[in-house]
Amino acid sequence: MKRNILLNPGPATTTDTVKQALMVPDICPREEEFGELTQSVLKKIVNVVNGQATHSTVIFTGSGTAAVEAALCSVVAEDGKILILDNGAYGKRAETIIKAYGISHRTFRIEWGDFPDINQIEIVLKEDPQLTHFFIVHHETTTGMLNPLPELLELCEKYELDSIVDAMSSYAGLPIDLQNQPVDYLISSSNKCIQGMAGVSFVIANKEKLVATSKIPPRNLYLNLWGNHSYIEQTGQFQFTPPVQIVYALNQALDEFFEETQTGRTARYVKSYETLLEGIEQAGLEMLLPKSQHSKLLTAIVEPKSPKYDFMEMHDYFYENDITIYPGKGAKKDTFRIANIGSIDYRDMQEFNKFMLQYFQEKNII
Ligand SMILES: *Cc1c(COP(=O)(O)O)cnc(C)c1O
Q1: Coil, helix or strand for 106?
Q2: Interval 330-357 mean pLDDT
Q3: Which residue owns the Cα nearest ligand 1 atom 2?
Q4: Rounded to the nearest whole angstrom, what is the distance from the C-alpha of residue 315 to the centroid of ligand 1?
Q5: What is the pTM of this model?
Q6: Are 136 and 147 in contact (CB under 8 A)?
Q7: CA-to-CA dists, residue 258 to 255, 265, 276, 288, 291, angstroms
Q8: Over the stretch 207-216, which tens digit does the pLDDT of each residue have?
Q9: If we measure between CA atoms, which residue out of 258, 253, 274, 288 comes closest to residue 340?
Q10: 169 lines ligand 1 (CB under 6 A)
């Protein structure tokens, strides 16, 4: 099969074996055989972040936002209040969800590309004792920033807040150990660093916290965390029709993750990132963030000032060469973005670097 190099932040490039795992005999998802596959996938998902002793996976059909919405609408009690860190599009999206449900909230908003100041956040927590939850994006894919999760979790502990962490684009890419980083609700999806196909997302929930949410009147049916969890606990099956083939592909992707190991995957991604930095330097381009804030999973590159530069034209140039690049999204400077997740390695990034330099030189942009 033709191989495309996806440098957009997911759905990421998959292996041929993950693609092949989609081709399975037709099966009714109410059969025991599929129930066993589902149970096994749920276990593997929580194992990726060493949460098997303390956490359960609740899985949803839908892209990553489905699981974010599920967590947000299911865990804040009627008299609760949530703090949202907004330093990118995904923090902002959480706020949009919370507003749609009319849940009491407060937003800590800074420019997209600014690093959150822990002391400033602590001031908010001190003056607002009604807060019960904190929503944090781990890797803010808008800018490529790795938010300071350990420090933010310390604040949660100190002020007794339950943490909801959108780890969509970091789960399986960067090591997360729930025994050392006690996130209450960790969210991700099938198609980013775990390298499966798009179609399911999940909340890895602390078991005790999850049970406590059973007392909160459901705000909807389809995305209720406790409803989905209790159904699957009782029956071993998805509550609603699952995307059968996507679950098979995810199972294969999880097996490939454990084969590569977290250390191996992170090292492969970091090598691609470092190769990308060489290309950025060669082309004389500027990055949005200082290196110390980089996730090493996605890099936001400031767009060249030249009037000859045109993102869509550059995009098409790459696309013709089987490479997909990604535009920016509302950061404090205009950027384009290059992710280095998925089944690619530093040699693919060398290809990208070669074409980037060629393009800029041909167009006299640099
Ligand atoms: C990709 C992503 C999402 C979810 O986006 P979907 O398009 O719904 O899959 C949420 N948060 C972050 C940080 C992401 O990178």
Answers
A1: strand
A2: 97
A3: 168
A4: 21
A5: 0.98
A6: yes
A7: 5, 9, 26, 33, 29
A8: 999 999 999 9
A9: 274
A10: yes
